[in-house]
Design brief:
Blueprint (H helix, E strand, L loop, with lengths): L3 E6 L1 H18 L1 E6 L10 H7 L8 E4 L7 H8 L3 E3 L7 H4 L15 E6 L7 H13 L4 E5 L9 H10 L3 E5 L3 H9 L4 E5 L13 E4 L7 H13 L5 E2 L10 H14 L4 E5 L1 H4 L6 H15 L3 E4 L9 H17 L24 H10 L6 E5 L2 E5 L4 E4 L15 H20 L42
Parallel strand pairs: 1-2, 1-3, 3-4, 5-6, 5-12, 6-7, 7-8, 8-9, 9-10, 10-11, 11-12
Antiparallel strand pairs: 13-14, 14-15
Helix pairs in contact: 5-6, 11-12
């Protein structure tokens, strides 16, 4: 039997809520909507609900708007039915009820992330350990120590010991057989990269070799290297090598597919840096595509690099992508409506109200506090005396009555700038909250506007200026 939901709303939101319920919500749930008799749903109070809702309530769950200042536990005790705070925006109700992004289990993944520190030889031990801790915090399971040709690495063993002392797995990435052997003897977990001719470097150590073709692109040599490793009793990973765009990208992708065909049970690795680092494109989309290929081919090890400033969050992007793709694959579904972490520039549903909705809200506003909202026609700024619609923030200034209040002017300027960015990019804008850029920006940067009073804008200090 479908769950019985009682949705509480106000006059201005009722029509939009009914349109939403007429679709998928109505098919999945038994829904009843109650207009509680206030114009703006956020203004409903516990006293109003106790007066206007008559128990017993024929519902399994009662959901009230997220911005309403209600105590769900107190209402549950009073009515004997579970009350729950819903989302701030009506368009997010499907996600809240488990029908869209935001309700998925993203705790699982099966791709191991290697994070390369390319200047490992020149960093002091303390700096390298701090860098490694930060990378592990972003999702890395293995720290890859990059060795540069012609650059001495005298403290390689000590740095491996430091990392392993903190429980961090280590790989050594070098073209120098002596450095690779030193790393193996010092306890490194992986060696990048060995061929059929250099496999002996890993013999007698705990290190797992990552095998590559020699010469480059020769899959027959990679298959021979894998067979030789098996004969030696060595675990191994195979990496056909991903090439940059215009340097053999499509052929290298075909090599990964062919390698999986020839070695159906082999563990594989893909290094994504040749695309993320060497392509002037936001790395989130590149990462999603590459890890999608890994998900299809069962490539469960990925080497990441974040040296270029435009890839500063690529490890976090890889972590988000592997979780999203694992969940989608488990559901036999497209990787859509699982996570917003990689939707950094544009939002899937940027607008929560139409221009007509905002016109109605502006007409019903009875105080001098400015509201800032965004619809398809631009930025809406309104209070009881003004309703301005513009597509750039600066053009709003001549029409705003700021009453000589510098703090209020600063606050509105900051909010209007955010609103314009959201309007032009197609992002969700919510007054007094930071814009969200997925994993491109740490969550702490999305804090509430510091000059905003709780629940509304700064109050106009001189109402007379608005009359």
């Amino acid at each position: 039997m479908a769950e019985k939901l009682l949705l509480l709303t106000g006059h201005l939101a009722e029509a939009r809520l009914r349109r939403l319920v007429a679709g998928e919500l109505g098919e999945r749930f038994s829904v009843r909507i109650v207009n509680i008799g206030v114009k703006v749903a956020a203004l409903m109070t516990e006293a109003i609900l106790r007066r206007r809702l008559r128990p017993p309530l024929d519902a399994d769950r009662v959901i009230f708007p997220g911005r309403a200042g209600l105590d769900a536990a107190a209402l549950t005790r009073h009515f004997g039915v579970p009350f729950a705070r819903g989302p701030d925006e009506i368009v997010d109700l499907p996600a809240f009820l488990g029908l869209a992004a935001g309700a998925r289990d993203l705790s699982r993944f099966d791709i191991r992330l290697f994070a390369e520190i390319v200047d490992a030889a020149t960093l002091d031990r303390g700096a390298l350990l701090a860098r490694a801790r930060a990378l592990v915090g972003e999702g890395a399971e293995v720290i890859d120590l990059g060795c540069r040709p012609g650059v001495d690495f005298p403290d390689l063993e000590a740095k491996i010991s430091d990392l392993r002392g903190e429980g961090i797995a280590v790989s050594i990435d070098s073209g120098d057989p002596q450095e690779l052997r030193r790393g193996a003897l010092a306890g490194a977990d992986f060696l990048l990269s060995l061929t059929e001719h250099t496999l002996a470097i890993a013999a007698g150590t705990r290190a797992t070799p990552v095998l590559i073709p020699a010469p480059h692109g020769d899959l027959a040599s990679l298959v021979r290297a894998a067979a030789k490793a098996e004969a030696m009793g060595l675990p191994f990973l195979v990496d056909p090598i991903l090439d940059p765009i215009h340097s053999g990208l499509s052929a290298s992708l075909a090599r990964y597919h062919e390698t999986r065909r020839r070695l159906p049970r082999a563990e594989m690795l893909m290094g994504t840096g040749n695309l993320t680092e060497l392509t002037d494109a936001d790395s989130a989309g590149v990462t999603a595509i590459l890890l999608g290929i890994c998900s299809e081919l069962g490539i469960r090890n990925v080497l990441t690099v974040q040296v270029s400033p435009h890839t500063r969050r690529t490890l976090a992007e890889h972590d988000a992508a592997r979780r999203m793709l694992f969940a989608a694959r488990a559901d036999h579904a497209l990787p859509r409506l699982y996570s917003d972490a990689l939707l950094q520039i544009h939002d899937r549903v940027p607008l929560t109200e139409t221009a007509a909705d905002l016109a109605a809200l502006a007409a019903a506003t009875r105080d001098a506090n400015y509201r800032v909202m965004v619809a398809e026609d631009g930025i809406h700024v309104f209070n009881s005396h003004h309703h301005i619609v513009r597509q750039d923030a600066l053009s709003c200034y001549p029409d705003l009555a700021l009453a000589g209040d510098p703090a209020h002017a600063f606050y509105l300027g900051a909010e209007l700038a955010k609103a314009e960015i959201a309007f032009r990019l197609g992002k969700r804008y919510v007054q007094d909250e930071g814009l969200r850029f997925g994993v491109a920006v740490a969550e702490a940067a999305s804090a509430r506007t510091q000059l905003a009073e709780a629940g509304h804008t700064l109050r106009a200090r001189d109402d007379a200026a608005h009359s």
